[in-house]
Design goal:
alpha/beta, Rossmann fold, six-stranded mixed sheet, four-stranded antiparallel sheet, 7 helices, about 35% helix, binds adenosine-5'-diphosphate, binds magnesium ion
Amino acid sequence: MNMISVEDVTFAMEGSDTNIIDGVSFKINKGEFVSIVGPSGCGKSTILRIIAGLIPPSSGRVRVMGRGIEGPSKKLSFVFQDFALLPWLTNIENVKIGLNLSELSEDEKDKKASELLDRFGLSGFETYYPNVLSGGMKQRVGIARAVASDPQILLMDEPFSSLDELTAETLRSDIVYMLENKNISVNSVIMVTHNVEEAVQLSDKIIVLSNKPTKVKKILSIKTGRPRDKRAASFMETMDLVYAELAK
Ligand SMILES: Nc1ncnc2c1ncn2[C@@H]1O[C@H](COP(=O)(O)OP(=O)(O)O)[C@@H](O)[C@H]1O
Ligand SMILES: [Mg+2]
């Protein structure tokens, strides 16, 4: 089943007639983990924001589960590089932001947020503020908030880039586990990353973008099951392919 279809999307800054994004198309199917890689400034974050319905494209369109988008949708949630937690709210209150549009009672929201914190290894930290947490723990709160609304699609913008490598590796496994876990609504992920190894480790599909004016250079499919052995010859070959595309 098609989850997201990006159809000939262009984007120019307001008042400019030069396209930053110059006709980008791709599709994402149910169950897929898709990474977007490309040069810094080519418009990766902008594409994610367009898919999220936060900004409109200049032309072209995005369909989410077959329907055009008219603004933020409950079907998608965002995970940010800098976590984007509100420092004046406790961790559980931050997770409950993900339930703002939900029809649950306050008690049910508390229960759900607390279960999510527990699931992401943060039980006991409900009433603490984010500033006492490590980066990895903050991002777990960010992910718990994102999945609280039971989205089917998770959009992640460099979600592990500001974490140390060991912490990032643990969170990557958590995300893979989440995709395979039937109790969690998320079934498809789009991740922007500049980390080619991370993209090859996690993705079913890697979309390589060119420099501005940005187009899709190549879409690589990876069929190997996860977890993947980073030392396997096929893993390194795929990494080389992505680097070669980026360098072209
Ligand atoms: N606030 C802004 N003001 C002016 N130009 C911007 C702004 N935000 C983004 N851009 C332009 O859009 C391009 C794409 O930005 P972005 O989507 O953040 O790229 P990426 O995530 O790939 O690094 C940038 O190269 C820049 O030219
Ligand atoms: Mg970016």
